[in-house]
Amino acid sequence: MAKSLLNDRALASEYGYLYLSCLAKKLNVVQLSASGQYGTMASSSNDLSILRKYAETGLWAPELSERLIAFFAGAGGTYLDIGANIGMTTIPIARQNQQVRCYAFEPEPVNYGNLMRNIAENCPGSRVQTFQLALHEREEVLPFDIADGNLGDHRLHFETRLAAKQNEIGRKIINVRCARLDDLPIELQGPVFAKIDTQGAEPYVVAGGRRTLAQADALLIEWSPYHMARLGGDPQVVLRFLEEHFDHGAIEPTDAKAGQRGESGPMKEIVRRLQATIAAWRDDPFNYVDVVATGKLASP
């Protein structure tokens, strides 16, 4: 099998990383690294999503990286990476534009350790500050699900009667520290771009960070009614915030669904469209989008 993979480029491309990950597990190898356009990135050897894609393509979330580079356009500013994982969106902008101050938030200990390693390896001396925290509406310690294989699917744990449709049952559970974004010692220098990708915790992030997030000039937030329902969050918290603070919005496919068409328009219309998905997508973990908010409204 190993010889076949080495000698067949197509076979290696399709199955090589999976074989390497399985072999690493057998040999008690806990970390792998891959090189690409953002440098050499390390992750757990069972990372079958983020590091695998980076190893196979040399990229991760290229649309977001390009958007950030264009947004800051050689000037300074602040990037809030809420749900930073191993740094695949923080590190490209920190390498490209050292004037940008980046704040990266990642609660899971293994991902956080690799985030720190990747920053040290790829952008030493950059203006990146990390927080091993889950952002929430209150400060406390909460249970947290660990997803095996897709290390971007870790999430806060919440007991619910909703049917689990994404292999949530039986996951390892750890405890993580939570804090409110508005309570943290961060300094915002404009322009400000905030990215929130927290597997359903978005309503809690917004509730605990309204003051800070209202200062963002652009906001990208994942919208997944299924994941929000699994965590017992209220999607209306997100919609009210978007409508109160931004004039324009766009509904876009996530990087996992790149190539699909999105739609844009006044934020009131975008909110109306998102309202309709709360019930329609509640039982479907595969229906989710990114919402991009721009055109910051003046504070009342």
UniProtKB/TrEMBL annotation:
Record GO terms (molecular function): methyltransferase activity
Protein name listed in UniProt: FkbM family methyltransferase
BP-aspect Gene Ontology terms: methylation
Protein's organism: Paraburkholderia bengalensis
Pfam families: Methyltransf_21
Keyword Phosphoprotein annotated: no
Keyword terms, alphabetized: Methyltransferase, Transferase
Methyltransferase FkbM domain sequence ranges: 81-245
